[in-house]
Design a protein that fits this description.
about 190 residues, alpha/beta, six-stranded mixed sheet, about 35% helix, GTPase activity, nucleotide-binding
């Protein structure tokens, strides 16, 4: 049903309606589609070009609603990298990064790499969106706020809009190689 920890397996997480599925479709098909309904999770197989190499990747799209927490937990435990998304026009989705998503991810996979993804940045200056936020006493999440959060949670950071391409994620998705420690082995007889 699932896979072993795979360095080319990624999950995309975050609140509902922040643009997770649209991001995946853009990465997989190079087209932008607005998607609203999905099952508990969806998986996509694709070839990503990372550091000049073609890499077969599995991307798992997760649902933000709490009803699907057990499925997410299983997915989170099996991937090497999680693209953790929030919408810059949804302050609640930004707050939930630390209130909901990080605790859930760290509980299930404390060693996974996190890439913080700010979505819908093209709507930050949209007059209609700004008016709706202002009516509720809110403002869009700034780039500085995103960078500060990224630093606080020790993650990579990217801001995206509809023009994002798979190439934009190329460096971020490249496996991180840690320096191996030299260990000494001995035999006791």
């Amino acid at each position: 049903f699932f896979f072993c920890m795979d360095p080319q397996a990624f999950a995309v997480a975050g609140d509902g309606a922040v643009g997770k599925t649209s991001l995946i479709i853009k990465l997989v098909n190079s087209s932008w589609e607005q998607v609203m309904v999905q099952p508990a999770y969806e998986s996509y197989e694709c070839t990503l070009h990372i550091n000049g190499e073609s890499v077969n990747a599995s991307i798992y799209d997760t649902v933000g609603q709490d009803d699907f927490s057990p499925t997410r937990d299983l997915i989170f435990s099996q991937v090497s990298t999680i693209l953790l998304c929030y919408s810059v026009i949804s302050p609640t989705s930004f707050e939930n990064i630390t209130e909901k998503w990080l605790p859930e991810i760290k509980l299930n996979n404390p060693k996974c790499r996190i890439i913080l993804v700010a979505t819908k940045t093209d709507l930050r200056e949209d007059e209609t969106v700004l008016a709706r936020l202002t009516e509720r006493g809110l403002t869009p999440i700034s780039t500085k706020q995103g960078k500060n959060l990224s630093k606080a949670i020790d993650s990579s950071f990217i801001e995206i809009d509809k023009s994002v391409t798979a190439a934009d994620f190329s460096q971020l998705l490249a496996p991180k190689h840690k320096k191996s420690k030299i260990t000494k082995a001995c035999t006791v007889s």
